[in-house]
Design goal:
Length: 341
């Protein structure tokens, strides 16, 4: 079968990716992982064959953390990842999530009830074709369910061997503290990039003080910081519905991006490598999970983990994209209301 050839290639290839501890409970992963959401037609059309090839090449080149969720593609993404990792699933860390339901935008999408979490973990295990989930996140905090109940149910899944480590995504500092008291939290996942820096003030210092890992999703601004950034005209590209990618906001952000592109060219790297290297140097306990559908971009991201930026460059980048220079919110207002509960 094809995956036997893939395994032989993996055994021969020298891994190049640098490793980092994710939290203090024994989980160690590549400093750059792979966010797989875009492989389920989130940022435009995707091809399963190309996606599987990219995932397998990422493993060969040393990426060991793969991130998905039950809601991505209504289960398609988990199935895709399970297929791609067939035969090497014990050599990598798979993270998935529960808590967002695929519903109409005018209805409640967040569900943190224990019975829902339990039913969904079983579905995820089947789709991923795994005996357990390495890292299981509460995708969003349900304001109608005490966090102790949601995390408590996830803790029972750990006791039963269905989950190894627990994480939480886009939660407020107070909720993170309560969750951590209920069961040790291995990782917090939130959006973090040059133009999404809200976690720097309070959340990041708490995580560092308590040895909790941090996973940065959309570290390249949903592809905005790539030299070849473009929006797909198809309805599958959800970025066209996000304020930062609309009208005058997009135009203004593109003007600021030119400064980053010019700086990256002077330094002999791509804009995405500069943005990712900046992020990795901000926190030694941070793991970045840029999304990509192509082997070329994955290899560029891997190379960024070896870039050591001068403090002066870090300072320049800090100033280029501060809050006053970023135009538009991360999500539409209704989705922003789901964050930091």
């Amino acid at each position: 079968m094809m995956y036997h050839v893939f395994i032989k290639l993996l055994q021969k290839k020298e891994k190049k990716m640098l490793q980092r501890n994710l939290g203090s409970q024994g989980l160690k992963v590549s400093s750059v992982g792979l966010g797989c959401m875009g492989m389920s037609s989130t940022y435009g059309r995707a091809d399963d064959k190309e996606s599987i090839a990219s995932i397998r090449q990422a493993v060969v080149n040393g990426i060991s953390l793969f991130d998905t969720a039950n809601v991505y593609g209504n289960g398609h993404n988990e199935k895709l990842l399970g297929k791609a990792l067939k035969g090497v699933d014990k050599q990598v860390t798979v993270a998935t999530k529960v808590g967002i339901q695929e519903m109409q935008l005018n209805q409640k999408r967040v569900n943190g009830r224990p019975d829902y979490i339990r039913s969904e973990v079983e579905k995820s295990l089947i789709r991923l074709d795994r005996e357990y989930i390495d890292l299981y996140y509460l995708h969003r905090v349900d304001p109608d369910v005490p966090i102790e109940e949601s995390i408590g149910e996830m803790s029972r899944l750990v006791e039963e061997g269905k989950v190894k480590y627990i994480g939480i995504s886009e939660a407020s500092l107070s909720t993170i503290k309560r969750a951590h008291q209920t069961h040790p939290i291995t990782a917090v996942q939130s959006e973090y990039s040059l133009w999404s820096r809200g976690v720097e003030k309070e959340i990041m210092p708490y995580l560092q003080a308590n040895e909790i890992g941090f996973v940065a999703y959309s570290p390249l601004g949903r592809g905005f910081f790539a030299d070849d950034f473009s929006l797909d005209a198809s309805k599958e590209d959800v970025r066209q519905y996000l304020p930062r990618f609309q009208g005058d906001n997009l135009t203004a952000n593109q003007e600021v991006f030119k400064v980053i592109r010019n700086l990256s060219q002077k330094l002999g790297m791509t804009s995405s490598q500069l943005a990712l290297a900046w992020l990795l140097q901000k926190n030694s306990n941070l793991i970045a999970i840029p999304g990509s559908k192509s082997i070329q971009h994955i290899n560029e991201n891997i190379a960024s983990s070896h870039i050591d930026l001068d403090d002066k460059i870090i300072h320049i980048l800090d100033k280029i994209f501060d809050e006053s220079n970023t135009h538009g919110s991360r999500y539409p207002s209704m989705l922003m209301d789901e964050l930091e509960k």
